[in-house]
Amino acid sequence: MEQAVEWCVQGQVVGRVRACTVSRWSGTHDAMTLDFRFSTEVEAFRDEVRAFLHEEMAAEKVMPHGDDGDLTGLGEEFERELVRRAGARGFLGISLPAEWGGGGRPASFQAAFNLEVAAHDAPLIDTAVTLGAQPLLAWGSPDQQAFFVPRIIAGALIMGIAYTEPDAGSDLGNLSMVAEPDGPGFVLTGVKSLVTAAHKADWCLTIARTRPGVPPREGLTMFLLDTRADGLSVRRRPTMNRWTLGEITCNGVRVGPDAVLGEVNGGWRQLTAAVATEGAGMFHIGFARHLFGLVVAYVRSAHGGAPLSDDPLIRDRIASLHGEVEVSERLAKRAIWMQENGQDNMVFASMAKVYATELLQRLALAATDIAGMDGTLYRPLFGPGSSTAAGDGRFAWEYLERVHGTIGGGTNEIKRTLIAQAGLGLPRPPRVG
Amino acid sequence: MDLSPPQRHQELRDGLSALLASHAASARDAPDSSGPRDAPGLWADLVSGGWVTFGFPEASGGRGGGIGDLVVVAETLGGGHGATPFQGGIVLCGQALLTTSGEGDRLRALLAGERTFTYCNWEGFEDPGAIPSTVEAAETANGWALDGSARFVPYADVVDELLVLADVPAGGERRGPTLFAVPGSSSGLTLQPVPTVGGDHYSHVRFSRVEVDATQVVGQVGGAMQWLPRVLDIGRVVLAAEMVGAAAAALSHATHWATTRVQFNAPIGSFQAVQHRLADAYIDVVTAQDSVYDAAGLIDRGEGARLAAAAAKAYCADACRRVTAAAHQMCGGEGIYADQPLHWWHRRVAALVPVLGSVRYLHAIVATSVLSD
User: Fold this and answer.
1) Do A426 and B258 touch (CB under 8 A)?
2) In the CATH hierarchy, which fold is given to the domain comprising B118-223?
3) What DSSP letter does each residue of A25-64 carry, written as one string?
């Protein structure tokens, strides 16, 4: 259909637009609507992962290993064994390049894996694959890659990320750990804080100042740090939900030139790239689906009377949260889809992180709210006598646990600034000082 | 997972946006709240240009495609500056005629722009399955007589035929909701304009023994519930799309304002408080948009969409109201002037929120589905 339409402003013809001349449809509906479902291949893989987790995370296997001092809720030996078994099944590095021994599958495979392990409370989330693989593949020397990558994919090591310092949280440019040249190597001195898994990690990725007297973002270098090195100590500091974060003190830790990751004095560029390629956070969706399912089960069960699900106010809240869980998953999937299709997904991954972590807080709040006094019962994950029953100490644990999601991995304030500037093109603020 | 926007959708958006822009000035001159805000000439251009018949089969004179295309048209119209008969006149009537067999002539006339229709539920646009009937039809010697009233009927004063949903009582036993085609010129039909916040062209329609022939029954007597759920799903998704279009336009307007408005020697968009509020509005827009596309995809793939359509419209109602409110706050005093476009999108979203089910009602649908299995 070709037809010109004239358009006028105050009686004057100011332009002509064509009538609708869009292409004809192909006759199938597939090409004209968006499809947010994982592909059948991804779903098949997801089923495999689910079956594996169903067996490995069975209550009788897991409960004897409860450890409330660990973020995963489980002891280090259990975790190491499970990570090895997941590696043996080929689950780790499912989306890493095949030439490195990875599965070579699109990013949605890793995303589906993350979703399921989170939904099963399995200690397979902050694995070395998530934390270390990307920087190693991007900047590692051939020797470093040959050492680390196969071990990462086999599930043979635990890695930690040690970027943050007491005075350098969101403002990483302010970090002060020093790495002084020492012959061909360096001597590291300083403190890194808020390090997840520091007490059990075999290796840490860190960053330190290698050149004094230059602007804050210059003269930084990334290092692969052996946590057994002389002069390195870890202090475990309990969080409000009992598990600990580590404070790593380097008191003259000597490292060789082979500990440098990437370029000497090129650390800032590497760090920003490492942060930018953080995934869409599909594990948050796993947490959210799990918690939402527990809340639904809780309101449907009768607690000595009519089930809470008969209450219209509860029903309204459940419906609202259901919609938000769906929204959160779609947003994460969009970020993954962009990644798979070679698009810059930094803005959408940031949106997905902001949305999911705040939704988790709303879910935990609703859970404790709805459960009344039951919502104040507290038990750590896999703690003695706990069960997976809804409300059995879990809701209060969630309420405390979901606080840190909006802080770690880039605070939601930093992410919103990024969304506004990179996504909407809003101007940077005038620099202060 | 395939989230590639079809090229045709971009063509649709671009072309339709240009057409809307050409009508923006005349729409803005229209009254703001006390009466309908039609863009004079826009509807004729939309119909003659073939913009409004996507999602209808080519065999009936439509442009083919599916609900995925309808929502792109609705979204783009939502970013415009005037109300149109698209929702009631094309989407609801067209889809109702499409799903009732033997109504090919009416559908062809509708899609060709030869005859105009509007859709008349018994309580405005609320879900007729959920509330008691306010229009009833009784069988007469020659056909049917309709009595009762319906509020919020769009464009009832200008259309050729009203497709009226009426309940058919038969003795003690109700035969159920039935659709009747009632000529706009029928005697016994009285109309009263209904002003709304959204500049809708609504009438309160009263039926006082309005007689129609038996041939004016659309589909089966008592058969409306066979097609109505699908039409309501489609209608909700299309309404949500229109809200998304309005919210996106408001966000775009506010972003432009924040980038150019200078206070304290800096564009206000460089301030963190402004950036974070607009970042939240951006998240609201993209998530609302994807909820619409996802639900449209389910309908087009023939999957059950009642839950997804209800959830999408409920979410869009909340998210889009947050967006237009944020846009107003960011635009400050300038945004509240009637000669500025922002209030139009703020009004539009507010007016669309309760149509085909309020948030409360849609949440009840969602909860029933989520809590029952």
Assistant:
1) yes
2) Butyryl-CoA Dehydrogenase, subunit A; domain 2 (2.40.110)
3) P-SSSGGGS-B-SPPHHHHHHHHHHHHHHHHHT-HHHHGG
